[in-house]
Amino acid sequence: MIVTDDCCTWLSELQNGTMFCPRWHVRIGFHYWSSNGVQKFERPSLNLQSIKYCWAPEDVVIICFTSGSTGKPKGVTISHGSLIVQSLAKIAIVGYTEDDVYLHTAPLCHIGGISSCLAMLMVGGCHVLLPKFEVKMAVKAIEEYHVTSFITVPTMLASLVFMIRHNESRKLDLTVKKILNGGGSLSIKLVEDAIRCFPTAKLLSAYGMTETCSSLTFITIYDPTVNNSNQNPKEISGIISNSVHPAGGVCVGKPAPHVELLIIKEESSHVGRIMTRGPHVMIRYWSQISAAVIDSGADWFDTGDSGHIDAHGNLWLVGRRNCCIKSGGENVYPEEVEVVLSQHPAITNVAVIGLPHPHLGEMVVACVQIRENWIWTDLKVGELPSNVECHLSTSVLKDYCRQKSLTGFKIPKAFMVWRKPFPLTSTGKIKRDQVEAEAMLHLQPLLSNL
């Protein structure tokens, strides 16, 4: 089906073509109305006799660009079959139905937004579209249209939770039944707050990327039909910390039915390269001739991430290899350090980066955003004023990392308080390259004295 308006000038160029042939043509602005006021659908004026309709699951349906969180976005060519099988997986695992009212929080230029949109189209659900994600607009839409499901990234979910709790609005939450998180792990505090704001919602998290047509694995963080929504915070924290934030990586769940995973271990480490194959893998990068394989004749795609698979078939994500910090000959994955620091009650958001160091090669630096009722000071506890209770410092956070059993070389050598929003991609991911560039400017005096 093609929809055109009276501004369309290129349709006539397709009259003699055969590569594009819609079954229906919807004209907007031409005022073809029936007696009951409904706009008519009309057959296209193309030569249909020369057209052979065919099913092309392996042909390109869309070129979708990566988020560009670590560099320049890349165009990813995705097939019809990949998009369909991914959407079917979301229907099966998340549980979308025709009764759902789906709020489009993710842009449709993002693979998560596209695949979830198609999944909702497949089941015949209702769509609520926003010009862009804006938290007040999203909260209003949830209330007005009785939204039952949406997808998020951690920054979006944090904004929604803050808005709902700040306004003490409790009538929004009972309609929401399904929340799918992607683009990063959720802190314990954020999950606890989300459960309180949306007590009837099943909360899931997915791990994937544009090159694999969205989600590779899924994990259910909270299910009100299984877990008691009246659990106290300690019980909820126990559930989350055991399944989402253990030492040695983040559990991102089991692969979808159509996904194969393989870990190619590096030396004696239990951690290795995460490989995948199946109908979900992209055809190639745009402008690339060769398909997306690691070796000639191989059909495994290298995700660029490191991790391991446990005895129960769960994938544990350690981090992206191109973001790995080389400090004193050791590998430090920023995500692993971020998971630990994000559990501290004072920290709302954190970005771990590597900056040049004359002896270590790179040193681990943590840029942290702290809550309003906390103050940053490098004074020792005995030197603080008596009225200061909620304080944070470099020594406090280093001690916290040790208490969480973070290996010594992974503990940040320096901390920087980030007092403005982190630079984000269109999908809510932190742009690490921009954070590194700005941190270099602010920490230059420290670096020059090393």
What can you see in these coordinates?
The protein has 450 residues and is of the alpha/beta class. The chain folds into three domains: 53 residues, no CATH class; 196 residues, 3-Layer(aba) Sandwich (Rossmann fold), CATH 3.40.50.12780; 125 residues, 2-Layer Sandwich (GMP Synthetase, Chain A, domain 3), CATH 3.30.300.30. It is 24% helix and 27% strand. The strands form six sheets. It has an eleven-stranded mixed β-sheet with strand order 6-5-7-8-9-10-11-16-15-13-12, with helices on both faces. The chain has a three-stranded antiparallel β-sheet with strand order 3-4-14. Strands 19-20-23 form a three-stranded mixed β-sheet, sandwiched between helices. Strand 19 and strand 20 form a beta hairpin. It is globular. The protein starts with a strand and ends with a helix.
* Spatial gap, N to C terminus: 64 Å
Low-confidence parts: 30-51, 243-247, 293-297
* Count of β-strands: 23
CATH topology of the largest domain: Rossmann fold
Question: What integer value in Å does the Rg equal?
Answer: 25 Å
Mean pLDDT: 80
Number of helices: 10
Query: What top-tier CATH class of the largest domain fits best?
Result: Alpha Beta
The spatial strand order of the largest sheet comes to: 6-5-7-8-9-10-11-16-15-13-12
CATH architecture of the largest domain: 3-Layer(aba) Sandwich
Number of domains: 3
Overall helicity = 10-25%
Major sheet characteristics: 11 strands, mixed
- The geometry reads as globular
Strand content: 25-35%
Derived from helix and strand composition plus strand pairing, the structural class reads alpha/beta
CATH homologous group name of the largest domain: ANL, N-terminal domain
